[in-house]
Amino acid sequence: MDTRAIDTASVDRDRLYMLIAFTLAVLITAYGVLLSPPFKSVRAAIGLPEELEGARYNDQTGAADLINPDGGKTFLGRITFVYHSIFAVLILGSYLVFTHRYVNDRRLLTDIMLLGALLTVFGGIAYSYITKDFMLHGLFIAGLTFLFVSGMFTFSKFKPSDLVAWNIYVSGILLLMGAFIGGWLGASFMKYRGSFLNALIEGRFDPSLPKENIFWRALTAHEHAMMAIALALVFFIALSLVDLKGGKLTRYLLYLAIPSQVTMALASYSVWFIGGIAHLAITPAALLLIFSTLLLSLRVDKWNLIKAGLITGNAVMWIAVAIPGALVAMSLRKPLFFNPEFRAEVWNWAELAYNIGHWHILLLSWGVMLLVIYMVYPVNLGRAGRIAGYLTLAGYFIASTGINLYMLGNPPGEYIPNPYDNIYLSTIVEPGLGLLSMGVVLAYFLYLKQFLRIELS
């Protein structure tokens, strides 16, 4: 049998799976936008509910009800299912690039990974928005299991050959550890759901209250570490596709990233057992990690779209995540940068907006970096692909940095539901998101066109 034919078929199959991952990401994002308050009339026109259960503003408490008396407990479940669906799709997209780059015998492993992502997305979204059917919940759990099994077997056979590959290997192992914690948390939830839900509700009004709840700590450990390590994974996957400048500095930075990843992740996981004191290790390790990745992005030899993505992503991590996060952390209980202190009730909605915006920026960073990679690997889409990539990066930078002005720049006071006429949203964030959307749409159609052209030829 012709070996070259096998390789070509494998590449085309990988690109089909990448197209599926890209399509799933676009569909989930578009569905999320459709469910936002400005599209209420559109939802009604196509038969979707105008109002979603849960998380509605309560005038008596001055906050959102995580468990709405009229809507039941579906809101918390919906967050869990949708978040895992997005994470599964981004894991699939990253995994396909990684295995195409490093793993030869990958057919069965990528099949399992794709099946896992499809089951997670279909089961989770259908269970959240269509019907609370036990079988749909089972499909969701089965999908997560397939994702874990595929990752476990992949990294058990992966043999790193250089320092970039070693960083990818470390990221993969740490993600599998975090998935184990997530599995324990999910398995424990049904039995201890009352205690867990109470901790989440308490944390909504005073984040200091639920710290004694082991399930709340496990959730915090799981979601923070998984997101940070996933970003490290996609960063080093992107780094593996470009040439780095030689020399001791590059080598030392790659060495530094390994213990930084390990310390940050293990310290995050240890919150499960020992609580918030673990931040004494988490914070410096995380700073070292993003410091090393920033400098490594500058060590890419020639300017190209991936280098632009790496630099932009690292800039956003510092400007929109690390620095605002530090200002908020130092102002939680004393009015250092915010007056009054950020935990005061008048900041209630600013804190909620900050938490939501924080996670959106991190997920968006992951997705944008994947889009940039897809424009040049495994097939370079040329000038049009670069235009799509740069449009996306520009919109991503504007929206991610601008959202902090909305979250933290408004004066403290009572919340006005859905303040879409806010000056920061209307003049900075929304134009940035519009630019980003143009880049994503162009990138998707370029990717689809290129794939169909290859198939037809």
List keywords for this structure.
457 residues, mainly alpha, two-stranded antiparallel sheet, 76% helix, disordered N terminus
Proportion in helices: over 70%
Rg from C-alpha positions?
22 Å
Q: What percent of residues are in strands?
A: under 5%
The parts where pLDDT drops under 50 for at least 5 residues are 1-6
What is the multimeric organization of the chains shown?
single chain
> What is the terminal-to-terminal distance?
22 Å
Number of helices: 13
Structure, described:
The protein is mainly α and 457 residues long. The protein has three domains: 159 residues; 129 residues; 155 residues, Four Helix Bundle (Hemerythrin (Met), subunit A) (Up-down Bundle). 76% of the residues lie in helices and 1% in strands. Strands 1-2 form a two-stranded antiparallel ribbon. β1 and β2 form a beta hairpin. α3 runs parallel beside α11, α4 packs antiparallel against α5 and α6 packs parallel to α8. The longest helix is centred in the middle third of the chain and has 43 residues.
List the helices and strands and how they pair.
Elements: H1 3-34, H2 40-45, E1 57-58, E2 63-64, H3 74-102, H4 107-129, H5 134-157, H6 163-205, H7 214-239, H8 248-274, H9 279-298, H10 305-330, H11 348-376, H12 382-408, H13 423-456
Antiparallel strand pairs: 1-2
